[in-house]
């Protein structure tokens, strides 16, 4: 009890020293909560309760963050949980007292529209507003975009829907919407996921178009829509494009490489869960030299053919080919031609017996990650052990069995090794490999059939090791150090 009293006393001292939050912002928070409660049911936080109990410094209230310098509210997190709350008609005036607001999170709030003249466009009166998250509100995206288009300070905008969502068109339109907005010229990142949209022109509502609007957009997440392969040539209107997510769309067939090469700043391209058959070059095509990361997989197309067509991505450093059948024997030969790839992610993809036996020629590899791949058999004692520069190996949850091949000890650059969830066996003490792997920082051999001596003395020289998991193996008494 005494301690609690002391804590409360300390709390009030801090409140006094910090002068508390601004009175107008405290009452605005209380009004906001009253509005959310009367219209939306779910109580995200109990600010009124804090206030009634004398915790009046709203900068210490949950879901509120203030600037240390000014005591002004800079972040409001009103995100709710999936499927909670009744319909809410947004009222922008409730947010205008927070003059320094930078981040506003309103996902899953069941916003179906706004009250008359109180749409999102009015938030342009908050000159520092940079990040707005409105994901998973059942409001028609086109109407939403034309209202948000007025908040020219925005740098990050997150929108998205569940595939099942049926959209509401707000009953009242902001009077501003009929005029032309200036566009989100500061926008760097846009999430626009799950709307099933097939026409990119919808983004013109944010002030797109050739030379205006979204000219600084670097990172659009357009996954889970219905774009087809014409999307690449349409994206030329965003000259700053660097990081593009087009996973789970309807991009099928042969992709014209020149359309991708035209996106000349693109570094990261996610095409997971489409059905691309190959990337085709025409005579005299240049190479795609800016792209470093490419994500493919979860498709029915011929993976050998896709991999063979990746040659024009001449600067590819990281390739992900996940959730795919990669058992064709030719897959490995196509992969080996991608000689600059350093990071290879094959999570959930099934591989052929000859994969590990032949991957050693990808000498540039630093990371080989192939968890949850359902591969079986014993680990071969050659091939993969020629990966001289390998730093991370992830074989989690395959069905590898037998003892560890001695060549594993040759991978002396290995920092991170996970063999968790296989059927590997043998006494750890009888292996010389561990004494050679002194670069290890992370080692997980849990859920196997190893015998691990109680003293862990095999790892006594591993001064860099910070994570070791040997659980769910057999721990045995030490026999070695009985001197
Ligand atoms: C919107 O909020 C403002 C500020 O609290 C309030 O004065 C106004 O009545 C509200 N509008 C509607 C239609 O509820
Ligand atoms: C609201 O905007 C939509 C789309 O711009 C338009 O079709 C509709 O007629 C407008 N409704 C009102 C009440 O102005
Ligand atoms: C691809 O998408 C564009 C833009 O929505 C559309 O005009 C075109 O008809 C589509 N092409 C095919 C083959 O579906
Ligand atoms: C897949 O493509 C490779 C290389 O283009 C070809 O040799 C092979 O026959 C194809 N496999 C199937 C099943 O079509
Ligand atoms: C690998 O590259 C060489 C040289 O460009 C080419 O001749 C060969 O067909 C390629 N192999 C595969 C499997 O793509
Ligand atoms: C592993 O290293 C040993 C000793 O340096 C060497 O004899 C052996 O050939 C190497 N094995 C492989 C597969 O590189
Ligand atoms: C640890 O290093 C010392 C000195 O190099 C060596 O004598 C000892 O055998 C090593 N221990 C293990 C478990 O490798």
Automatic annotation (TrEMBL):
Coiled coil: none
Keywords: Glycoprotein, Membrane, Signal, Transmembrane, Transmembrane helix
UniProt cross-references to InterPro entries, sorted A to Z: Leu-rich_rpt, LRR_dom_sf, RLP23-like
Signal sequence region: 1-20
SUPFAM superfamilies to which the protein is assigned, alphabetical: L domain-like
The name this protein goes by in its record: Leucine-rich repeat-containing N-terminal plant-type domain-containing protein
Organism, as annotated: Solanum tuberosum (Potato)
Domain of life per record: Eukaryota
């Amino acid at each position: 009890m005494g301690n609690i009293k002391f804590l409360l006393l300390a709390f009030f001292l801090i409140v006094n020293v910090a002068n508390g939050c601004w009175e107008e912002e405290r009452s605005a928070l209380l009004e906001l909560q009253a509005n959310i409660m009367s219209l939306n049911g779910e109580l995200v936080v109990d600010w009124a309760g804090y206030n009634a109990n004398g915790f009046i410094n709203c900068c210490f209230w949950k879901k509120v963050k203030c600037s240390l310098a000014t005591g002004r509210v800079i972040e409001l997190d009103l995100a709710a949980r999936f499927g909670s709350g009744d319909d809410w008609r947004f009222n922008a005036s409730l947010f205008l007292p927070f003059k320094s607001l930078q981040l506003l999170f309103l996902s899953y709030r069941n916003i179906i529209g706004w009250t008359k003249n109180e749409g999102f466009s009015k938030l342009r009166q908050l000159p520092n507003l940079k990040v707005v998250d409105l994901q998973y509100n059942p409001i028609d995206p086109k109407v939403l975009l034309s209202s948000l288009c007025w908040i020219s300070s925005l740098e990050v905008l997150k929108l998205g829907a569940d595939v099942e969502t049926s959209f509401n068109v707000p009953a009242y339109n902001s009077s501003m919407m009929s005029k032309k907005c200036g566009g989100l010229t500061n926008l760097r990142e846009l999430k626009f996921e799950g709307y099933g949209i097939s026409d990119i022109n919808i983004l013109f509502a944010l002030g797109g178009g050739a030379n205006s609007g979204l000219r600084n957009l670097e990172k659009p997440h357009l996954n889970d829509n219905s774009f087809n392969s014409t999307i690449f040539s349409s994206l030329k209107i965003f000259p700053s494009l660097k990081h593009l997510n087009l996973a789970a769309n309807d991009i099928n067939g042969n992709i014209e490489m020149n359309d991708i090469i035209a996106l000349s700043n693109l570094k990261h391209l996610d095409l997971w869960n489409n059905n691309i058959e190959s990337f085709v070059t025409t005579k005299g095509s240049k190479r795609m030299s800016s792209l470093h990361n490419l994500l493919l997989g979860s498709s029915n197309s011929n993976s050998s053919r896709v991999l063979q067509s990746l040659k024009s991505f001449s600067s590819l450093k990281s390739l992900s080919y996940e959730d795919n059948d990669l058992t064709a024997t030719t897959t490995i030969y196509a992969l080996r031609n991608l000689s600059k790839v350093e990071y290879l992610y094959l999570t959930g993809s099934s591989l052929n017996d000859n994969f590990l036996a032949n991957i050693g020629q990808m000498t540039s590899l630093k990371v080989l990650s192939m968890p949850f791949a359902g591969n079986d058999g014993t680990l071969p004692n050659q091939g993969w052990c020629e990966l001289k520069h390998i730093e991370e190996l992830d074989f989690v949850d395959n069905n590898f069995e037998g003892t560890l091949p001695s060549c594993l000890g040759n991978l002396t650059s290995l920092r991170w090794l996970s063999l968790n969830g296989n059927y590997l066996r043998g006494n750890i003490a009888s292996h010389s490999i561990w004494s050679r792997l002194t670069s290890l920082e992370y080692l997980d051999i849990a859920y196997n059939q190893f015998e691990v001596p109680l003293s862990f003395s095999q790892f006594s020289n591993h001064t860099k090791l910070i994570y070791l998991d040997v659980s769910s193996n057999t721990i045995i008494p030490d026999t070695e150090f009985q001197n």
